[in-house]
Task: structure prediction
Amino acid sequence: MQAVHGEAEDPGTVAAIALALITGSRSSVLAGQRDGRSAVALLTAHLDGLFSGRAA
Result:
């Protein structure tokens, strides 16, 4: 996995960011700010970026 600046990113950091995204999305869905489909779409976009080397 690549960081934005081209350096290899720590897998633990990558996992923590993904977990934070999931936790935040869950809270957003429960609060009614976002629906489940859009939360899944955000997570999917993030994971697609990770596996293609384009993650922010």
About this structure: The chain has two helices and no strands. The chain has a mean pLDDT of 84.
